[in-house]
Specification:
The protein folds into 2 domains: 56 residues; 209 residues, Autotransporter beta-domain (Lipocalin), CATH 2.40.128.130. The chain is 18% helix and 49% strand. The chain has 1 helix and 12 strands, in the order αββββββββββββ. A 12-stranded antiparallel β-barrel has the order 1-2-3-4-5-6-7-8-9-10-11-12.
Length: 303
């Protein structure tokens, strides 16, 4: 009798241990499943929200390809182009004092851009100008000739070999108000180079040739502009530039400025410079505001 009681006790303990192991395995499997579900949800959330959060955050580097890149306020153009299916507008308000004592205001000087391909943009430049000349100082206000153009990236570049782009433009002499119309079409051709020196320094330089619209004489140009990233949202530059008309004296100049990245798609800038022409030193000051927006969004492919 005692033997049978002892046997029943052993069987009950064995069954209880088995039940305990089964329950532990079930609980462990449930926990693993819940963790997997949470992890997958987190991955899905990041895949949907992540890029949007990154694009709306101001904590982006000024030189990053993920933020707006402009051709102002430097005289130099940059090798960057407007992203495919994005519209970008660059607006500058400028005052310039010339060597002969005359002056003019641009309010604004606007470049409209559209990314037609991943590496190519088209552009339209429009400028409302008010000039004050000598000797009567009567202001003359109107639109200067529109300029149409394109820019394409030719080579991405490395640390040693520069990135290369090409800009071609054409100033339309009669697409202007009568008081600013030109005599000739004025073509522009410019090769644009840039080197990344380190994580916070870029070097931009251009060489080109153009006509001024009044004389059929080529003008050769150059620019050289090191740019420095001070913070994730602020950059500055110094620049030397010049032009060499075939039939007249060369003109050289220096300018400097600062850029402030408000958001990845919104940029403010300010600059000032002087032109060295014989014994005169004309000067200019400029403020700018630039913005871009995606107009055609990529369709998501559901699998």
């Amino acid at each position: 009798m005692l033997f049978f009681n002892y046997l029943l006790l052993v069987l009950n303990l064995s069954i209880a241990q088995d039940d305990s192991l089964v329950s532990k395995k079930v609980v462990s499997k449930l926990n693993t499943t819940q963790h997997s579900i949470k992890h997958n949800k987190k991955k899905q959330y990041l895949s949907v929200v992540g890029p949007t959060m990154m694009m709306s955050s101001p904590n982006c580097y000024v030189f990053s390809n993920d933020v707006i890149q402009t051709d102002r306020p430097t005289i130099s153009q940059t090798t960057s182009t407007t992203p495919h299916h994005w519209v970008q507008t660059e607006n500058g308000f400028l005052y310039q004092r010339n060597a002969d004592g005359s002056s003019f205001f641009n309010y604004p000087w606007t470049v409209w851009k559209y990314g037609v391909l991943p590496n190519t943009e088209i552009s339209l430049q429009t400028t409302l100008r008010s000039s004050i000349g000598q000797p009567n100082n009567v202001p003359v206000t109107g639109l200067i000739p529109f300029t149409v153009g394109f820019k394409t990236r030719l080579f991405q570049g490395t640390k040693i070999i520069p990135a290369v782009s090409f800009y071609g433009g054409l100033s339309l002499p009669k697409v202007a108000t009568y008081n600013y119309a030109q005599t000739y079409y004025a073509p522009y051709a410019q090769f644009i180079f840039s080197n990344t020196i380190n994580s916070w320094t870029n070097l931009i330089y251009n060489i080109g040739v153009n006509l001024d619209g009044f004389e059929p004489v080529p003008i050769f140009t150059y620019t050289l502009a090191p740019m420095f990233e001070l913070t994730k949202q602020i950059a500055c530059f110094v620049e030397a530039y010049g032009q060499f008309p075939q039939n007249s004296a060369a003109t050289n100049g220096f300018d400097a400025g600062i850029l402030y990245l408000v958001t990845p798609n919104f940029l403010l800038d300010a600059s000032a410079g002087i032109n060295i022409y014989k014994i005169y030193t004309p000067y200019f000051v400029s403020l700018g505001i630039s913005y871009r927006k995606q107009v055609v969004k990529k369709k998501l492919i559901h699998r």
